[in-house]
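quick q for whoever's on today - can somebody do inverse folding on this one?? i tried earlier but teh output was garbage lol. tokens:
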């Protein structure tokens, strides 16, 4: 009789320990899944732009409104001259000599973003030097870049090629959006179509 009771209690103890172990594993698994979900949801989108006349700023605000992304305006430590001819001359030299002008502000949490919209005016058929400064100032490895531009001619020039030359090979640069400067404020439907075309929205 004693042997039977011993066997019975031994089986009961084994079953109890097994159930506790399974519950513990389930709890660990649940916590792991929650951690993965939390990790995925911490990644965000950021709109970074440089605007001289206000057109690119207007387009950036439309994109920010349509995506809910954070937004950041690039500013130069030494602003361009107010005189148009002097500014054009300076920009031309920066583009020709691959000079990246110093920026006055820094993004401290760039690693929080996996998708970055970068906006620039098209100057002399190319990327504005302040945006080149941004691209070369940060490690954008593994991120997705969505370029957008304002242009009086409505053309991209070699701006996208310049972006591709400045980023590492593991950065994904999607198709760019270009809008005439005068249309930037009312470009909501154009932005919506672009976001769908590049797969950012459905």
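ok took a stab at it. sequence:
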């Amino acid at each position: 009789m004693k042997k039977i009771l011993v066997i019975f209690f031994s089986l009961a103890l084994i079953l109890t320990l097994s159930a506790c172990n399974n519950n513990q594993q389930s709890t660990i698994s649940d916590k792991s899944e929650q951690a993965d979900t939390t990790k995925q949801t911490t990644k965000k989108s950021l709109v970074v732009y440089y605007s001289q006349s206000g057109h690119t700023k207007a387009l950036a605000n439309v994109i920010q409104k349509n995506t809910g992304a954070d937004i950041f305006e690039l500013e130069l430590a030494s602003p361009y001259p107010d005189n148009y001819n002097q500014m054009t001359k300076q920009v031309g030299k920066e583009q020709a000599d691959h000079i990246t002008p110093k920026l006055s502000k820094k993004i401290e949490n760039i690693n929080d973003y996996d998708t970055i919209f970068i906006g620039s005016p098209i100057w002399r058929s190319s990327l504005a030097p302040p945006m080149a400064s941004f691209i070369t100032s940060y490690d954008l490895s593994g991120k997705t870049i969505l370029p957008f531009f304002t242009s009086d001619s409505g053309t991209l020039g070699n701006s996208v090629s310049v972006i591709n030359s400045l980023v590492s090979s593991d950065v994904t640069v999607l198709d760019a959006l270009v809008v005439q400067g005068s249309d930037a404020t009312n470009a909501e439907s154009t932005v919506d179509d672009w976001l769908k075309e590049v797969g950012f929205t459905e």
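fwiw Confidence is low (pLDDT under 50) at residues 2-17, 23-41. also The first strand starts at residue 44 and ends at 49. so keep that in mind when u check it
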